[in-house]
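Action item from last meeting closed. Structure (409 res):
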């Protein structure tokens, strides 16, 4: 019988630690029992991956405590600086209050990437030290508490190398935003998800990518980012404040989704909901690719049309996608874009009709005062099939003399 040769153990430390960086830290630590060669190899792995889920423990906090002890032990025995730390843990099924001391110790190890995703019953206190890592390039903090949002309010921010920041389930204010852009001169991408925003102004000359997803916006907010290339706004909130877009000269891609909204705020005295003016579309005049998700309501439709009327032309717009629950009732808005987008090449319409029998849907209210010569491509995707698509093609024909290609899917 041939003698087996352990070729893996003979590899250089750099290769072994690189291999172990692809498994969880728990699995990496378990390799210490293989041989003397492996006893301390895990302590030099440049990537730490902590994963934990107590959903199967029926509220038993003993395992929660053991996991935290394991994390502490790993950090105490580190032999080298870190490159990446990934912490994905769910404590939501017990009363355990996870400590954030480990994150402070991680920050002292100077990682390049930190990604934290925690779910728990109680609130968190994010250590200030995580906002003063000189070589940190990417930071994600998803701090979900069952009862309230996590207030992120560091005394100061000094992250000179930070390029990407993602914050989830946090409460942020103007003071934080001012510190953020002053203390992160290299910040290019900002992603805010499910946050409460007491923010009135987002201003940065360096920011290239901005995403606001399902945030509760308390105040009207001005976004002024002349270097912004990509913008995504998705909200299903009923009490969003007005968003005003300014200085968007570099914007190329925009995806705007306002669903389930009355665009109003309750007046304390009368209980009356008023509609603040939308100032979104008129700030997208330089966009090349625009995606609009429309949730039909007469009030919202009028706001969209009023907003687009403030923009004389979308001179760079080449690709337009409209996604609507009732696209025929939104056709006046489509007509506005056809009139104001001289460079438009690709129009995609995705939608459905609640009921097509009897043709109860209104024709466009606007008088047909223009007709563009040519549109290269039109794609129509609908649940109602050919009958609905034919109606849309007929309506488009009133505004476009010649359509090069029509694709119905």
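Sequence:
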């Amino acid at each position: 019988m041939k003698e087996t040769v352990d070729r893996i153990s003979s590899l250089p430390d750099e290769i072994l630690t690189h291999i172990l960086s692809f498994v969880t830290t728990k699995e990496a630590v378990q390799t210490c029992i293989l041989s003397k060669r492996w006893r301390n190899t895990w302590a030099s792995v440049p990537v730490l991956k902590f994963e934990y889920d107590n959903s199967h423990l029926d509220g038993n906090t003993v395992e929660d405590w053991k996991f935290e002890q394991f994390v502490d032990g790993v950090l105490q025995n580190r032999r080298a600086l870190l490159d990446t730390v990934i912490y994905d843990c769910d404590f939501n099924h017990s009363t355990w209050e996870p400590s954030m001391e480990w994150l402070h110790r991680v920050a002292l190890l100077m990682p390049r990437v930190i990604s934290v995703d925690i779910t728990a019953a109680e609130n968190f206190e994010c250590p200030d030290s995580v906002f003063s890592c000189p070589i940190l390039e990417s930071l994600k903090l998803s701090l979900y508490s069952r009862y309230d949002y996590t207030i992120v309010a560091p005394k100061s921010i000094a992250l000179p190398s930070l390029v990407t920041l993602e914050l989830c389930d946090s409460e942020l204010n103007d003071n934080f935003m001012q510190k953020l852009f002053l203390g992160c001169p290299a910040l290019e991408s900002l992603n805010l998800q499910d946050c409460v925003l007491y923010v009135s102004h987002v201003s940065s000359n360096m920011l290239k990518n901005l995403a606001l997803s399902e945030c509760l916006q308390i105040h009207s907010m001005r976004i002024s980012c002349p270097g912004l290339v990509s913008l995504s706004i998705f909200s299903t909130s009923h009490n969003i404040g007005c968003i005003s877009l300014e200085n968007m000269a570099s914007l190329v891609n925009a995806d705007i989704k306002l669903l389930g909204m009355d665009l109003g705020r309750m007046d304390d005295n009368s209980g009356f909901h008023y509609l603040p003016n939308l100032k979104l579309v008129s700030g997208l005049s330089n966009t090349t690719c625009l995606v609009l998700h429309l949730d039909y309501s007469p009030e919202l439709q009028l706001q969209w049309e009023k907003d687009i009327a403030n923009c004389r032309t979308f001179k760079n717009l080449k690709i337009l996608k409209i996604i609507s629950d009732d696209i025929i009732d939104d056709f006046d808005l489509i007509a506005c874009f056809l009139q104001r987008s001289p460079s438009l090449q690709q129009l995609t319409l995705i939608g459905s009709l609640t009921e097509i029998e009897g043709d109860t849907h209104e024709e466009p209210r606007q008088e047909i005062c223009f007709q563009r010569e040519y549109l290269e491509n039109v794609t129509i995707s609908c649940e109602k099939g050919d009958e609905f698509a034919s109606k849309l093609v007929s309506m488009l024909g009133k505004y476009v003399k010649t359509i090069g290609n029509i694709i119905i899917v």
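Note appended to the action item: Confidence is low (pLDDT under 50) at residues 262-275.
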